[in-house]
Specification:
With 349 residues, the protein is α+β, with helices and mostly antiparallel strands. It folds into two domains: 28-68 and 85-240, Sandwich (Immunoglobulin-like), CATH 2.60.40; 249-343, Cupredoxins -  blue copper proteins (Immunoglobulin-like), CATH 2.60.40.420. Helices cover 37% and strands 20% of the residues. Strand 1 and strand 2 (138-143) form a beta hairpin. Helix 2 packs antiparallel against helix 3 (89-116) and helix 6 packs antiparallel against helix 8 (332-343). The protein is elongated and about 100 Å long. The termini are far apart. The mean pLDDT is 92. Bound molecules: heme C and copper (II) ion.
Length: 349
Amino acid sequence: MMKRWPVVTRLLPLLAGLALLLSACGREDLSALRPQGPVAREQFGLMQLSISIMVIVVVVVFALAIYVLIRFRRRKGDDTIPVQVEGNHKLEIIWTVIPLMLLVVLGVPTIQSVFGLAKDYSQDENAIQVKVTAHQYWWEFEYPQYGITTAQDLVIPEGKIISIEAQTADVIHSFWIPSLAGKIDTNPAGNVNRMFFQADRTGVFLGKCAELCGPSHANMDFKVKAVDEASFQRWTTAMAAPAVLPEDPAVAELLASQCLTCHAIGDQGISLYPDLTGIGSRESVAGILVNVPEGEAEYTNEGTVYENLKRWLTDTEAVKPGNQMGQMDLTEEEIDALASYLAEQKLEY
Ligand code: HEC
Ligand SMILES: [Cu+2]
C-alpha cells in the first residue's frame, strides 16, 4: 500500500506532458479540436457527440462491474454456490434497447452530416473552385475561374465556400487541413474526389498529406492562407501578371535553361512542376521550409524566404528525401543569384 503513491507522483509529469502534447501546444491553426470554419465545426460536433456517448457507456459499465465485483464477492467461510439465474426478460430488453437508442442518437446526426458535407458546389458560381493535384511531394492548386495555378499555398478568401476537386498525379495522397475540414483522399486512375470548406477568419492554417506516399510524405505540408475578399482579388490579378525576368543576362539565361524547363514563372517556362510565380511572398519553400521575417527564425526549419530558397537549391535531398527535382549542378554564386531573384518575386495583395 505504502509504495503505490510514489508511482502515481512519478507518472504525473508524464501525464502533464502528454496533455500538453495532445493540446497541440496551443497553436490553433493545426488542430481538428479547434475548428476554424463551419465544416470543421460540424465534424468536431460529431466527435464530441460520439465521445460523450462512449464516455457515458464506459462509466456506467465500469460502475456496474465494480459494484458487482464488490457486492457479490466471495466471502470468508461462505462456500455455497450462488443462485444460478438464466434469462431475465426485463434486463435483456433493457440492454438491447439502450444500445439501440444510443446508436440512433449517434447515427441520425452522423448520416445527416455525411450527406450535408457531400454537397457539390462545383457548379456554384459564388464558390471558389480549386483543382487540387497531389504530387510526390508537393501540392498544386489550380483556380479555373481565374486561369491561375500555384503551389504549396492555397490562398482563399475568408468566409467563402471553397469547392475542392482533388486528384493525384501519381500515388494515393490525402488532402487534409485539420482546423478547416476532414481529409479527402486523392486516388490514382483519374479519380476525382470533391469536398468543400470555409474559413471563418483570415489567417494561415496548416495542411498535411495524410496518406503515406513515400520517403518525403512527412514533408508534404502545405498552407491555407485565408485573406479578405479584396486581397484575394488583388492576389489573383497579381498572379496573372507577366513575369519579370532577372536583369543580369547570365542569371536570366541560367534560369531559362536550367529551371524554366520544369517550372513556370508568370507567363514564362512550363508548369510541369511547382509554379514559382510570386514564390517570394509564400509561407514556405517546398511546403516544409517555413518562411519567417528576418531575425525571427525559431526552429531549425525556419529562415527567411531567401535563406530557405538557398537551402533548397543547395541540397534538395536533405530537405525532401526522394523529391523529383533532384540535385542541380549549381555553383554557390549561381545559387545565390537564383535565390535572390526568386525571393524578390513578391506579389502585392
Ligand atoms: C526536372 C525538373 C526540375 C528542374 C530542372 C528544376 N526543378 Fe525545381 N522543382 C522540381 C520539382 C519536382 C519540385 C518539387 C519538389 C517537392 O517539393 O517534392 C521542385 C521544387 C522547386 C522549388 C520549391 C517550389 C515551391 O513551390 O516551394 C523551387 C524554389 C525550385 N524548385 C527552384 C528551381 C530552380 C531555381 C531550378 C533551376 C536551377 C529548378 N528548380 C530546376 C523540378 C525541377
Ligand atoms: Cu503523403
